[in-house]
């Protein structure tokens, strides 16, 4: 496919990755028909504020819209989820029965909130999840009504919800199955630091335990949660913050490999179940499972804002290059990064801390709100995390970028897993090594 032709491109997913892909297609000269499909009826909006500003703003929340660039000239199909992909016919079928033909397709359907296990009795009214705008408004109203609140899962989302609720003055209990918050993502030292932040802010943190079930009142609504240690915690509202599930249900029967996310090659082209490349279909954002060289080529899904932006733009370049090897971009090799706001503290990270087998603590000052940790795999840098030391991340980012650009890192298929999964046993013998701060 050549930029500037009159073919039809379809972007399935009207959030950050999809919008960035659409914008990049136009910026790279595509002048044909561009259709953007979204399952929500509202225009694209930014998701990070949903667990922060939207929950705490004194008035009606605003300023979360994602800017649609002038000249995009897209045909919007909002409020209509994609329900089927036919690779042979090159069509996407929508929930209303409409069939959209395409010459090139961007899969950017993101992820959905992981719900309560279907093997257990369904939760009562008052148990919520947070993924989209409507979810945030429901949770905002529940917080305004008062607590107590129980948040199940102390990852990035759960921690931010707990912090927002404490800012509103609610009694909050945060329940986490691991020994520390964020342990799988950033290790025990950073996890313990985050745990201390929660406790200092008045959050009742319960680690090493899980929720077994829910208690209800006479009206059938939530009254509390029952933990696996036999104790009960009173609750007017509970939030399931158990991670995300890539939105791939509409790809059933398509022939694509999509377990735990859409499998991609290093250029973001999607793969069939037999491992072959579909050259006219690419994926980006939370739904894309892409080889990560910092994790020895394992395919990971990364649910971070910057990843959605960078993959959206890279996927557009790959799609426009088509089968022309002279115009094909190189492997996607951006340095991952994320941030999280907790109790007035901003945590920033670059690279893939979850892929590390060794953690080196450079600075640890809880009272001064400073933390600096570097993460290593087989002795080589794979990530860094800071609190109050943002300026120091630049050197880590540069070192990681240099590693990625020198071409010596693998892009092999490896063992597929998600970024929130623990590193494979072979990568952490006999366990992640945590070093004390250096003098």
TrEMBL record:
Keywords attached to this entry: FAD, Flavoprotein, Oxidoreductase
Essential cofactor(s): FAD
Domain Reductase C-terminal: 338-403
Gene3D superfamilies: 3.30.390.30, FAD/NAD(P)-binding domain (3.50.50.60)
Catalytic activity, EC: 1.-.-.-
GO function terms (MF aspect): oxidoreductase activity
Residue stretches making up the FAD/NAD(P)-binding domain: 9-312
InterPro entries in alphabetical order: FAD-oxidoreductase/Apoptosis, FAD/NAD-bd_sf, FAD/NAD-binding_dom, FAD/NAD-linked_Rdtase_dimer_sf, Reductase_C
Entry protein name: FAD/NAD(P)-binding oxidoreductase
